[in-house]
Design goal:
7-stranded mixed beta sheet, 15 helices, 465 residues, Four Helix Bundle (Hemerythrin (Met), subunit A), Gyrase A, domain 2, 3 domains
Length: 465
């Protein structure tokens, strides 16, 4: 770990409410730090008269105890105290968790009592940050904690869990071991340069670098699929007014979210909702109908539609199946001119009305025909992953943009090392690039990092985690 990291605040005992706000069966408050047991003794008692205290330091680790909680002015609640002694805890420090009855008032009063008893309110992600600084997790595993909490699909959950269990760390560890071996071969030869000894040929060094580079490239190539697993697919439904956009939007959501009307231009701004389809999270956007309009508000909505299309991962462009002749030709030109350059699907809507419009690349759909909608859903999933590699559920996938950037830097250093070797440059130049690659690898797991990177990562966590 980088010695420049600021660990001065590690001497504080921190506390936070670890459960979501609002009413519930229980609320859990967490303490971590050297003073956790002393603070717990001030607020947790064996009897409701608050006459007999509870000394957590004398109890065994990983045990749960029933008792009574004091607040300012006397008894606050009854609850459970769970204790974890250092180093066998999530943070690696002495940790106490107090479970009281759910409700914002009780939890807030207990939090105030813990703070007045000597604890400090934790910053976002500070418990997990301490787990990292105390060597309980590496940085990629710590980031997986946040992803696991935010996961909305089974694939996102499985991917985050694999990263938390250290699969990405294992990949980095093996790549680092290979880098150390290659660097050692290069530098060993440098030590005997004056004797003119060559231990490994230039071609062998280049081959070893290329083998490792290829593995790094393959891992980087999983990022598109990983991004979809982690963040979902932004999908825009576009088309002329009355082409069935809002009806399809509602059908995909399985609820009446958008207003459906026979009056053109009903949708004047975009609507956004999320839904899991075929195991993938889709972030749906219903847009204003694309047409020429003298209405200032509708025109602004249309401009927003074009911006949404430009930013989308996938666009469904709807054409009413009853459209024919010059109108159909115009619609297809509109599709090719404004949409088909993006990742898109041409949809002929309202197929139940018996229209004859069609196109070899189009999909006929009716919101009243579940089979046609299900076919569309399958095509949506296939299109979403079209730009990415096919990955199995058991494979490691890059889901984090920071990790992708680090691996791209590793690859750039490896390619530079390979060029230096091919051009017959001194092993010193090759070694510098190999060590640079090793440093970028270390950034993924936190072996090489700094306060700015850490603060940026953990600031996105919820308080209490």
């Amino acid at each position: 770990m980088n010695s420049e990291l600021n660990t001065s605040d590690m001497t504080d005992t921190i506390t936070a409410i670890a459960t979501p706000p609002g009413e519930g069966g229980i609320a859990v408050l967490r303490l971590s730090g050297k003073g956790s047991f002393d603070i717990a003794r001030k607020v947790f008692y064996r009897d409701k008269d608050l006459a007999h205290g509870f000394d957590a330091a004398l109890a065994e680790s990983h045990t749960v105890h029933f008792g009574y909680i004091s607040g300012k002015g006397g008894l606050l609640d009854e609850g459970l105290l769970t204790l974890f002694k250092s180093p066998h805890s999530y943070t690696g420090e002495d940790v106490v968790e107090i479970s009281c009855h759910g409700g914002s008032f009780i939890a807030s009063k207990l939090l105030q009592t813990l703070i007045s008893s000597g604890a400090r309110l934790a910053t976002p992600g500070e418990f997990t940050k301490r787990a990292f600084l105390n060597g309980k997790l590496d940085l990629s595993q710590a980031e997986a904690v946040a992803d696991l909490i935010r996961s909305k699909t089974e694939s996102a959950h499985a991917s985050s869990l694999r990263q938390l269990e250290g699969e990405l760390s294992g990949f980095v560890k093996q790549a680092r071991a290979d880098l150390i071996r290659i660097t050692s071969l290069v530098e060993l030869e440098l030590d005997f340069a004056e004797e003119g000894l060559e231990f490994v040929g230039k071609e062998e060094i280049i081959k070893l670098i290329e083998t490792l580079s290829q593995r790094i490239r393959e891992m980087i190539s999983t990022y598109i699929a990983g991004k979809i697993i982690r963040e979902g697919v932004t999908l825009v439904i576009a088309g002329k007014p009355n082409s069935g956009k809002s009806s399809l939007f509602n059908k995909l959501l399985a609820q009446d979210r958008a207003i459906v009307s026979g009056i053109p231009g009903t949708t004047r701004d975009y609507l956004e909702e999320s839904v899991v389809i075929e195991g993938v999270l889709f972030r749906l956007t219903d847009t204003a109908g694309i047409r020429s309009s003298g209405d200032e508000i509708e025109s602004e909505g249309i401009q927003r539609s074009f911006r949404k299309i430009a930013d989308a991962d996938l666009t469904l462009y709807l054409i009413d199946s009853q459209t024919t002749g010059e109108d159909l030709k115009s619609e297809l030109q509109n599709f090719r001119g404004n949409v088909s350059g993006t990742n898109s699907i041409l949809v002929f809507s309202k197929s139940d009305l018996g229209g004859k419009a069609g196109h070899p690349d189009g999909v006929s759909v009716s919101v009243y025909d579940d089979a046609s909608v299900n076919d569309l859903k399958k095509i949506m999933k296939e299109k979403a992953f079209e730009r990415g590699v096919k990955v199995n559920s058991s494979e490691i996938v890059l889901t984090n943009f920071r990790h992708k950037q680090c691996l791209e830097s590793v690859l750039a250093s490896l390619e530079s090392a390979s060029r230096s070797a091919e051009e017959g440059m001194s092993g010193e130049f090759v070694s510098v690039d190999l060590r640079s690659a090793m440093s970028h690898l270390g950034e993924i797991t936190g072996e090489v990092t700094n306060d700015e990177i850490l603060n940026n990562i953990f600031s996105s966590f919820c308080i209490g985690k």
